Amino acid sequence: MSASAKLPPFDAADPLGIDDLLEPEDLAVRDTVRSWAADRVLPFVADWYEKGELPGIRDLARELGSLGALGMSLTGYGCAGATAVQYGLACLELEAADSGIRSLVSVQGSLAMYAIHRFGSEEQKQEWLPRMAAGEVIGCFGLTEPDHGSDPASMRTHAKRDGDDWVLNGRKMWITNGSVAGVAVVWAQTEEGIRGFVVPAGAPGFSAPEIKHKWSLRASVTSELVLDDVRLPATAVLPEGAGLRGPLSCLSHARYGIVWGAMGAARSSFEAALDYAKSREQFGRPIGGFQLTQAKLADMAVELHKGILLAHHLGRRMDAGRLRPEQVSFGKLNNVREAIEICRTARTILGANGISLEYPVMRHATNLESVLTYEGTVEMHQLVLGKALTGLDAFR
């Protein structure tokens, strides 16, 4: 650039010029999802959150399917075949509306659909994926149990052969989409090790009671899965999903979406605080004119856009086939932790108004408390990175 070249103006919404890294197709995906969320989620989500419900979830799923947002980074079977960066941008925009909406999409696409797409038979793919991509069937993913979260290898849900059939018994806990799902991907112990099963929700012995009394992810369906002598044919087994590598690879794919999504919640809270700081007056002028408030805003902006850059970098690595699970842990650990801190700082700028559902900040903060620990707690991701850095396994 010559010394006389004119610099672009500073953009408070994109201070690092990250949009320059995006292709027109990326921007189109982002803007489409942002517009949908602004129309179909933002006007209603505070009320949904207060009531602890997500009404019309099946209609929302079909609309998301029509956008190509369900299983969007998968190819074939009605899936959009989008890039990892485009999927990440969609997650960011969805979570800027609410973590519960992004969770609906993540569990559908990155867990249930991804498991069938990667580990399923051709018959399983043909049966389920086109309807799931269209949002006609909602899926859930049964791994976590009441007594086994971070240690899935110790799961108690088991499947035993009975002739040509399998019989499943056990419980799964904290399952997003569970009570509205038409199909569940359930992981169970067998004599051959851990295996995945495709379980239709109508199978006798299968039930999914909804979990109530949550103070986080309230605009989301969370359930228990109960399997009492659920009999399945041999064709229900995911043929390529033997061992823990099956569910863990699904989790890695879903965690990648969280790396982006957490920055959506952070951006929403930061924008609310910035707007408030410019209009709220104390001592005769806007509070945004005071040094302590500007310091908070500057620190939040730095962490927010560093996190988006990190997400973008990981997305490019995923698109190049070079993203390692340890790098996903790096992103999930950093971005969720920083997003919570941004929300908490934004709350201090809003003062008492920060606890009101008139503003999104407290809703995002409480949602992120769940995002912080699901699909890998802070401690588990620290240990993943610790093992990668030292070569020493501290899990046991």
UniProtKB/TrEMBL annotation:
Signal peptide start-end: none
Biological source species: Streptomyces actinomycinicus
Gene Ontology biological process terms, A to Z: fatty acid beta-oxidation using acyl-CoA dehydrogenase; fatty-acyl-CoA biosynthetic process
Taxonomic lineage: Bacteria, Bacillati, Actinomycetota, Actinomycetes, Kitasatosporales
InterPro entries xrefs: Acyl-CoA_Oxase/DH_mid-dom, Acyl-CoA_Oxase/DH_mid-dom_sf, AcylCo_DH-like_C, AcylCo_DH/oxidase_C, AcylCoA_DH/ox_N, AcylCoA_DH/ox_N_sf, AcylCoA_DH/oxidase_NM_dom_sf, Glutaryl-CoA_DH_mitochondrial
Keywords associated with the record: FAD, Flavoprotein, Oxidoreductase, Transit peptide
Family, per entry: Belongs to the acyl-CoA dehydrogenase family.
UniProt-recorded Gene Ontology molecular function terms: fatty-acyl-CoA binding; flavin adenine dinucleotide binding; glutaryl-CoA dehydrogenase activity
Occurrences of domain Acyl-CoA dehydrogenase/oxidase N-terminal (ranges): 24-136
Cofactor(s) named in the record: FAD
Domain Acyl-CoA dehydrogenase/oxidase C-terminal: 241-389
Pfam families for the chain: Acyl-CoA_dh_1, Acyl-CoA_dh_M, Acyl-CoA_dh_N
Transit peptide listed as a keyword: yes
Protein name (Swiss-Prot/TrEMBL): Acyl-CoA dehydrogenase family protein
Domain Acyl-CoA oxidase/dehydrogenase middle residues, every copy: 140-230
